[in-house]
Amino acid sequence: MRVKTVLSVSTVLLLCSLLGASEPPPLQVVDIGDLVLENGRTLRGARLGYRQVGKLNLDKSNAILFPTWFTGASEDLFASGSLDAIDTNRFLLIAVDAFGNGVSSSPSNHPNFPGATIGDMVQAQHRLVTEVLGIERLYAVMGISMGGMQTFEWVTAYPDFMERAMPIVGSPRLASYDVLLWEAQREAIDLARQSGDVERASPIVGMISALALQSPEYHARRTPRSRVTEFIATTQQDSRQVMEDRDVQLKAMIEHDVSRHFDGSMEKAVGAVKARLVNVVGLEDHMVTPGPAIQFAALLGADSIELDSDCGHLSPGCEAERLAQIVKAFLE
Hints:
The chain is of the alpha/beta class.
């Protein structure tokens, strides 16, 4: 089943209007074989969707990997214009679908899906890049939101594998506020599951997402009280993802912690990083709060670029022109 994004229908339309849009290249889906997961179970015949544009140079040193955000698909990355700042005349751009998004292996398309962590997503992407595409090292890894979480995982799990990394409104480990937000959605999904119809959770999780997607100031400015009924109805229609798929990605984000393989020490995790990292955060982000990413970058001695917009988690779209210049400079 095709997934829109929670960044969802209205959000993708907003991003398209803010960023422009590009025609996505064809979707490719590849079976990467059995994958042993962090929970000890095996994902049989793991499948990954991806789209690529541009050409690999002779020494295979110009590939950029861009994983999808929470609930998003690779198609959405192109449709939103989020990739437009990357010069595909110079780079090979690989947009890869994360587990649980309904394109790559997910409960909705894979029988007896055994779950997946952010680490499992990245392990599968590493196999795609090395075994399927024959690339031994990436020029850069970049991602937005859950894609940013995957970027933090990449630089700590495979520190020698990329030259540069840019997590955008991502996190190396969720703060307590973020966990509360995502657990509230999981609780709604679980209650609906117990009722016998898990999809009944969809309007509720859409409303919960809308509470954090932009800041209260944004809605005070953009949503007059006279239109609140229409606004609420829109949020209830925003969650188009299959709820069991969504639950997998929610659990993956809640459990995400790059320090887990470093005795729980974020300092040790930072010590493993070899890539040049530029961290982009939204100061008014209520969905993936910026504190953990800022602290990680500070420990690393890396730059944190702050988007100070009341658009909150959607600041990358609202400040698209500025972000495009940041990305271009980062890739030079």
